[in-house]
Design goal:
The chain has 175 residues and is α/β, with parallel strands linked by helices. The protein has eight helices and five strands; from the N terminus they run E-H-E-H-H-H-E-H-E-H-H-E-H. A five-stranded parallel sheet has the order 2-3-1-4-5. The longest helix is centred in the last third of the chain and has 19 residues. The chain binds shikimate-3-phosphate. The site of shikimate-3-phosphate has 9 residues, from loops.
Length: 175
C-alpha cells in the first residue's frame, strides 16, 4: 500500500512518517527531498532561482513515481495536494492521511524555522499568523479529501503515529 501524508507545513508529516515506516518496515519517502535530490539544490533555492511553478512541476513528477510501488509512506509538501491534479494522482495511487492542525498549533511549530521555508521567509510574527490562517482556509478543500483525518492539536507524535499504524493495518485487511 502507498500512504500519502498531507497537511500544512510544520504539522509533522516527515517526522511521524519516518517513525511509522520504520515500525511497519515500509519505505519512507519525502517529496521535498526527492525534488531537492533531482534539482541538486534546496527547496528554498528552487523557489528563489527558478520559481514556484518549476518546483510544482517537479513535485508532480515525484508523485507519479509511486504508481507501481508497494509499502511506502510518502510525506508530501504542504502545498502538494493543492497543485494541478495532485490530489487525484494520490487518490488513484494510494490512501491519503491528513494531519489536521489548527493555526495556533502550526504557528508554534513554524515560528522558529520560518527562514528555511520559502513561503514563510521574511514574515514577521503577525504576518506569519495571518498567512497560516488564510492558507489553511484556502487549502482545506484539498486537505479534506483525505481518506483519514487525524486531529493533531495538542497530541503527541506517538499518538498520531499509532493512529496511522492502526489505519494502515486495518486498511490492509480490506478487500
Ligand atoms: C510548501 C511546503 C513545503 C515545501 C515548499 C512549499 C507549501 O513542504 O514543499 O516549501 O506550499 O506549503 P513542508 O510542508 O514539508 O514544509
Amino acid at each position: 500500500m502507498v500512504i500519502f501524508l498531507i497537511g500544512f507545513m510544520g504539522c509533522g508529516k516527515s517526522t511521524i512518517g519516518r517513525m511509522v515506516a520504520k515500525r511497519l518496515d515500509y519505505r519512507f519517502a519525502d517529496t521535498d527531498k526527492m525534488v531537492e535530490a533531482r534539482a541538486g539544490k534546496s527547496v528554498r533555492e528552487i523557489f528563489d532561482q527558478d520559481g514556484e511553478a518549476v518546483f510544482r512541476v517537479m513535485e508532480t513528477e515525484m508523485l507519479l513515481q509511486f504508481a507501481s510501488e508497494e509499502n511506502v509512506i510518502v510525506a508530501t509538501g504542504g502545498g502538494t495536494p493543492c497543485a494541478a491534479g495532485n490530489i487525484e494522482i494520490m487518490k488513484r495511487t494510494g490512501r491519503i492521511v491528513y494531519f489536521n492542525a489548527g493555526a495556533e498549533c502550526l504557528y508554534g511549530r513554524l515560528y522558529r524555522g520560518r527562514e528555511r521555508r520559502p513561503k514563510l521567509a521574511g514574515m514577521d510574527d503577525e504576518t506569519l499568523m495571518a498567512y497560516i490562517k488564510e492558507s489553511l482556509s484556502e487549502r482545506e478543500h484539498y486537505y479534506s479529501q483525505a481518506s483519514m483525518v487525524i486531529d493533531c492539536n495538542g497530541v503527541s507524535d506517538e499518538y498520531i503515529a499509532s493512529h496511522i499504524r492502526y489505519y494502515i493495518e486495518n486498511a490492509s485487511c480490506q478487500v
